[in-house]
Amino acid sequence: MSPHRYVACLVSVFALAFVGITAGLFFIEPFQGDLTRVGAFREAEYRWIEPQRYFTEPRTLSADSLDEYREPCDLLIIGDSFTQYIFKECYGWQEFIQDRTGLRILTIHISRLDLPRLFAHPVFRESPPRFVIFESAEMGLHSKLEGMDAMAPARVTAPPVVQAGAPHLRPVPQSRVMIERDWQRGPWLSMDAVIFFYRVRLKTLLGSRPKAYRVPLVAGVAPFSSPRKDSTLLYYGDLWKFEVRPEGWARARERFEKFRVLVEANHYSRFFLLIAPDRSTVYARAIAPNPVITPRPLSALTPLFDSLPQISVTDALKAAVARGEKDVYLPNDSHWGWKGHAIVGETVVRHLFPDTADR
């Protein structure tokens, strides 16, 4: 190749790259949802249009580690991103519980939890919570509490028995104010978003497994307020549970049972498992047949968890979708919108306080 032709080719490549990036700056919005981000889908197609509602200030506490567990709480929540996420301070499900009950609530992310230290923690031992809820996304349930494999209940000193006559908790509604938040577009001309968009698309084109899929919706069904009505996005994690073998589910069940025994060793605290259903589980009837996934709930794969104390939220979330509620899950994200958090919070209240939940 002659020097002239080589220079011409090089200039052409840079010119095409410049045109592509420049066009992308005006075409690709900064990513706000995890599904649009990991799958490189446009926010303009899958953003939410109906406003989200949130509380003006949080009244629950969130600890980054057990070092911040300094005061007693009525409800200890251990969870993953469905419990601690971008809007948790605005409309997390624990905020709805607090609004309906006035409980003192502390949240700790499972990734920041030191299991042996929890049961030996002085606050947990001397002033244990009345309720302990372990929340797990359905897609990751099989891998939670792996640290329990190295622990034996007999080696962990149980907290002292709380004497009979400990005050019985009664919900005290707070009637907190909520306000609406409209969609707010990210900053224009985001070079990071453009480069990430092209990189993900190129990796997918070269055969890399997508981390989010676009799947069709049943004609006439519109469970989201997004501009795009014919399809929705699914996280590739929705497929994980189909790959778990029966012995994997059995080990997971043993971990949760061991955790429950340790939590309830003081004869006061009560343990509950809360499974946050996958998006494909809740929207199974809305998703049209496709080559990516045939939605099946966890209960169809294993019945092992049925014997654990659970607060089931799947039916309530499905019912909301069936009656036409939009954005129970965010259109651009794998997590709940404010309506989903509110439904989960109300379901938890009804389970913990069945005699007073309707008052």
How would you characterize this protein structure?
- This protein is of the alpha/beta class and 359 residues long.
- It has helices at residues 3-27, 34-39, 43-46, 88-91, 93-101, 115-120, 122-126, 191-205, 246-263, 279-282, 314-322, 338-352; strands at 52-55, 61-63, 75-79, 105-109, 131-137, 178-181, 212-216, 231-235, 270-276.
- Helix content is 33%, strand content 13%.
- The protein has a 5-stranded parallel β-sheet with strand order 2-4-3-5-9, covered by helices on one side. Strands 1-6 form a two-stranded antiparallel sheet.
- α5 crosses α12 (338-352).
- Mean pLDDT is 82; it is low at 10-26 and 162-167.
What structural class should be given to the helix and strand makeup? alpha/beta
User: Which bin fits the share of residues in helices?
Assistant: 25-40%
Specify Rg, calculated over alpha carbons.
23 Å
Strand percent estimate: 5-15%
Name the strands of the widest sheet in spatial order: 2-4-3-5-9
Q: Give the count of helical stretches.
A: 12
Are there runs of 5+ residues with pLDDT below 50, and where? 10-26, 162-167
Total count of strands:
9
**Span from first to last CA?**
83 Å
Instruction: Kindly report the average pLDDT value.
Output: 82
Largest sheet: 5 strands, parallel
What is the ordering of alpha helices and beta strands?
HHHEEEHHEHHEEHEEHEHHH
Coarse morphology: globular
